[in-house]
Amino acid sequence: MNRIAKTSLIVLTISTIIFGCKKAEVNETSAVNEVQLSKAETISSSAAVVKDDSTHKFIRTAELKFKVKNVPQSTYYIENIVSKFGGFVSFTNLQSNIIEQNKTKISQDSTLETTRYSVENNITIRVPNKRLDTVLKSIAKQIDFLDYRVIKADDVSLKMLANQLSQKRSATKEKRVEKAIDTKGKKINDIMDAENNLANQKEQKDAATLENLSLQDQINFSTLTIQIYQSETFKQELVANTKDYNDYKPNFGFRIVDSLKNGWNVLLDIVVFLLQIWWFFIIGIAVWFLFKKYNSKE
Length: 298
Known about the structure:
By secondary structure, this protein is of the alpha+beta class. The chain contains 7 helices and 6 strands, in the order αβαββαβααββαα. About 55% of the residues lie in helices and about 25% in strands.
């Protein structure tokens, strides 16, 4: 019975440990998923969600600035996401900014260059209006620290309606002016004034048409302006000194002045050294007197 009880106790203990490990792994995975979800929720907004509405037309824009772990890798990730959802990159400026640079000579022919720099990228992308929220949530996975996010949805339906009405008025007036030129235009001055008026009407009509096309393009494709950066980075590189030793020598005049200074310093060093061994001269004089006295007795 004791053996059976001990065996059961061991099996129960092992099962408890295994179940606890699995539960910890599940909790850890859930925590990671919650962090990713919170990032997606932070960067998303109802202003980025497109709803079917025939009466309203919105131009959606977004501005983001956030820190990433690696700017080049995040840049490639964002570009792939944009391409995946039918968008395109209209501007990107990936660059390294040198903050500080030091050079330390470690040997006669080698120098150690230490560079402290930061990497950043400014990106402008266009994505289909209906994919804006999805793209934002996908980009959120790269965020290490969010500085800010601004999302706008501007309703331009009235502006487009005003342009359409302006086009109709211009078209009507254009036809009337053309008819007046053909039927009643006799004098050259009247004809020139009518032609100028007709040209102005066509110009206004074309301007309204182009503005509506531009607005429609901004409605169809949302614009995202993204600024990403990473922590400051250090780089050390061993560089060879290509110049000859003689290239670093000063000119002849400076060398003469330096030689005189060095000679004077050597003389002072000798005097100081002699003063330091004053006791040696006293001993020498004493030995000389003793030697002289001994010779005189003999």
